Amino acid sequence: MSARKAGGIKETVRTLVYAIAIALFVRTFAYEPFNIPSGSMKPTLLVGDYLFVSKFAYGYSKYSLPLSLPLFSGRIFSSMPERGDVAVFKLPTDNKTDYIKRIVGLPGDRLQMIDGVLHINGEAAALEAVGAFVDDMAGRQIAIDKYGETLPDTDRQHFILDLTDRGRLDNTGVFEVPADHVFAMGDNRDNSLDSRTDAVGYIPVENLIGRAEIMMFSVNGTARIWEPWKWPWAIRYDRIFKRII
């Protein structure tokens, strides 16, 4: 092997190592990509959305690290989420599965669902009817009531879906959020496994990975990877680089 060829291989390997190191640094400390596999956050997030999550928004825990390496406990540079943030976290019941929901309760809050309306510390979230969201359920097109919701003590409106106000999670007891925990719910209120259930429960602040910031890409699932002729019609162009609120 000539010296020139050996030098070229070394440069290529060095470039790859640098690229991997930079990617790991960005993924660990800045932004991490996630995709949406379920409809629990409709209409805010759809199946096929790909988004960036800010890793520095809430500080860092072991769950910020690749493979959740247990190099330290708790959080460093910690910052509490704001009510209404859309956040990614590790499911408390296994500390492995990534979930994405909206943070509606902070430490010390008392939350309750009454006839499908979220109450926080005795105050009902403000709801504004904004029409219907047409969803595909088991091959059928269903129109679901869509509302603009403004949580108490906030001035940010986001959208939720409400199929019924008599669902199994539409009337609950009072949830009192413990210290160092938050309470999260899906925007698709009647089709979300969230803090209202024992399967999720209160989320330790340590389990937070980051805040969902911006959509980078979205596809509707009508084209397979081996069907490039369908790709242009499978992209949701109106969702690319859309800010998540």
Protein described:
With 245 residues, the chain is mainly beta. It has one domain (3-239): Ribbon (Umud Fragment, subunit A). It contains two helices and 14 strands, in the order αββββββββββββββα. It has helices at residues 3-29, 231-234; strands at 31-35, 49-54, 86-90, 98-105, 110-114, 117-120, 123-124, 126-137, 140-150, 157-162, 175-176, 181-185, 203-204, 208-218. The protein has a seven-stranded antiparallel β-sheet. The chain has a four-stranded antiparallel β-sheet with strand order 7-6-5-11, with no helix packed on it. The chain has a three-stranded antiparallel β-sheet with strand order 8-9-10, with no helix packed on it.
Properties at a glance:
Umud Fragment, subunit A, four-stranded antiparallel beta sheet, seven-stranded antiparallel beta sheet
